Amino acid sequence: FEWFESPDRSRIERSLELLRTLGAIDSNSRLTTLGRAMHQTGAPTRAAKLLVAANSMAEKGFDAKTAQTYAALLATLLSEKDFLLDSQSLQDSAHEECDLYLRARLLAGDRDHHARLDRAAMSTMKRILRSQYDVTDNALRDTSANWNEKLVFRLLLEAFPDRVARRRRPKAPQARMVGSKGIELHASSSVRDAEFFFALRGDAGVSRTSGDPLTTLASSFRREWLEEASLQTVEASQIGATKQQALYRKRDLFVFDEENLTVYRERAWMYRDLPLQDGHRERANADDAFELLRSEAEKRMADIQTRNEAVLNLLSRLRFLNITPQDIAAVWNDAVAESLFGETSLQALVASESDLLAKTLERKLFEQREQFPSLERDLRETAPSHFTAPTGNRFRIHYPENQSPYTEVRLQELFGTSKHPMIGKGDRETPLTFHLLGPNYRPVQVTSDLPGFWKGSYFEVRKELRARYPKHSWPENPLEAPAVAKGRRY
Hints:
Layout: H1 9-21, H2 33-41, H3 45-53, H4 64-79, H5 99-107, H6 119-131, H7 137-145, H8 149-159, E1 164-167, E2 174-177, E3 182-185, E4 196-199, E5 214-215, E6 218-221, H9 223-230, E7 248-257, E8 262-271, E9 274-275, E10 280-283, H10 286-299, H11 301-307, H12 309-320, H13 329-340, H14 347-350, H15 356-367, H16 375-381, E11 386-388, E12 394-398, E13 406-410, E14 422-423, E15 430-431, E16 433-437, E17 443-447, H17 450-455, H18 458-466
């Protein structure tokens, strides 16, 4: 049908994917029997799944009437506006580590608290429970007093299978959800210690530390409950598959270690794509590591371009020729991919001393003759990588943005230089700036006029350093003295 205002296509796709995950539609986007039952409830998608799922809880060992009461309570709590404005005063007695339990207590009339409440929103929930689901005050009080964690888990697993999360580290608020998505528990959540929980909402903003969505509504559960539920065979339509399969299985997982930038293979028990335990870890082979490495390299493009000296130097030289990273984006991606063949770590790209990526990028750029017909000559003649001193030693030329190119050289290696070296060609020609170093390799002068330096401030430098370094050459006429090479090169 025609939309008055058409929603974003990605939102439609996410909605369809949720319906497939919950079993409401099949792989051809047609309503299933379950989907028709959900539609008849008139409730929002996940709430509808809770209400329909309650009818099958008797088969799993729960009282049917109790299950329907819990489903109605959970559906209301998760569909309507939250009435609890401050849960801090309730957390000390929240043994179940369930934010829904805290709200159930309040709806049941718990007065032993000092929490701030939205009374209007609370009244709306009570009215819906009574009129729409026939849940009495007595039923609410009984539910609150005899909170059944396992029943809550089984219902939530039906409606929120994609919101299952595992804490990344003990007691840390950060967690990983199904689908490899990050989530972080809000400080107001009562889920303090549990390793596994449902992240029921992610609408509390974004964490300043992790950048992940914050969840204020969470409900913990035990791993063995998930294993028990997942081992049961499910209908193919509920997971969008073509045949029946188990959601709980042992499989290989390839993970990227942020500390050493290496891809590892773990053999672990999984719920969907979420590892339920830390499995045996070993270094992945290069073929298995390739795609994950390439993805991680894309995330670290700026880091690689600034930490790797050879890459930084090449990009700086290209910028001097008015070629930006945007101009070579496609070639960059190809060079990264080729550099990662046979690798299981990003060290070869990130390490400051590695020139693998720079050489690969340069070669691939030279192959783009239609786009860059004279690049090889321009890099060699207009933006050279090194300056060759009179001694024959080569020194790297740096091309800082919005500054003149410069190099660092011991001043003794430049004796006899009567004409100042230039860099670039035509309107790009500019004097090469020298950071002149003393025998201790510390800067003693910066100049873009060597002949002027020899005739002027050289003598002040000579006077200061000759007494400290008497074994080094300090001629009275540096323009006629031979250049002297001694010590390390740059």
